[in-house]
Structures are given as structure tokens and as C-alpha cells.
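hey so i finally got around to running the thing on that chain from the lab meeting. sorry it took forever, my laptop kept dying and i had to restart like 3 times. anyway pasting the input first so we r on the same page abt which one it is
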Amino acid sequence: MNKKITTIMAVYNGEKYLAEAIESVLSQTHSSDEIIVINDGSTDATADILNNYPELIVQTNTNQGMWKSLNQGISMATGDYLTFIDHDDLWHKDKNKLQLEHLQTSEIDMSFCYIQNFTKINSHVEYADKQVGATQAGIFIEKSKFMDVGYFGTSLVAESMLWFQKARLMGLRQECLVDVLAYRRVHETNMTRGRAYNDGLVDVARELIRQRKFFNK
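ok and heres what got predicted. didnt touch it at all, straight out
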């Protein structure tokens, strides 16, 4: 029996780039069996765009924040594997295929891929250097292994950093493919831009240190 892949997306006012992100998931050479989208209280045309895709499982909420939305998607997931995509990002068409093969043929608990930032102005696209995708955007993992670590925290700006450190400290085996399989769009409204986000990283750094002390590492 083939195991199922669940892809989870949280979106808030994502009308500008949402369709491109969805299409990049639907265009996979190895399809996601379940695509869950948490519409986090959007006030723009996000709901109308989602209505164009009957194959999606859509949950619409009042605004609760990205991490709570992702956790809700995880709790709804019926797939054996979990993957994540942000509403403004893109996937390489072979992301599912290559990471599934990687996980099934290597002695690892989670597969990562490289991620590449890009900007698109009209039809002109510029790419930055690739980087290891040690965030939710680059992971491919069995749901049971994910839940061994637990849900994402919900109070800090970069909860995925804490989740991945906890996973390493708990001994989950990980490996990164050399391929760039996810593309992170850089634009004027990115959550990961601005002083508030940078200030929030100070709190994340403190929590990372506290977490290492807790595990005595």
C-alpha cells in the first residue's frame, strides 16, 4: 500500500502569489495526496482563489497566526508524510518525488532540500545563493516522526528554528539533498523582513540556548 503525502499551507491575505504556489504543488511529478490550506482570516481575494481549486481541503478561520494555522493543518492531516509550502513560495516539480525517494532509501528520519530566494519584477527573475532548507519549507518527514517532536510553538517569530533544534537534540536523523527544490519569494510584505521580525529573533536565540541546556547539549 502506497503511503500518502500531505502538503500543508497557511495563508493570510495571499491573493497576489497564492495561485502560483498552489499550481507548483499540483504540478508535482509525484502528487501530494492531500493538500490542506488554512485560510487564516484573509480579507482579500484569497477565499475566491481557493474556491477555484476543488481538490484542496480548505479550513477558514478568524486570524490566529501562522504557527497555530500550521498546527491545525498538521492535526487535520491524514497522510503518512508531511510537507509544507508558504503561500508565496514555489516548489520544483520533482520535490515530492526526490525527497520521498531520499527518505525511503536512506537511514534518516527527515529529508531536507536546498532553498533559493528569488525576486520577480514583471517577467524578470533574480535568484540568490542557495541555502540549506532547515525550515518547514524544506522538510519532508513522516507524520509520526514529526509528532514525536511535537507541534510547532506559537509564541515566537521563527518557531521552526526551535522545532528543528529540538528534533536534532532528540536524535532524529536528517540529511539534506544537494538539489534546490524550494524557492522562497522575497517581496515587500514578507513576514521574514523588517525590524519587528529581527527583534523577535533575539527571543528565539534565548530560547534556543534554554532548549540546549534542557537537553544538556
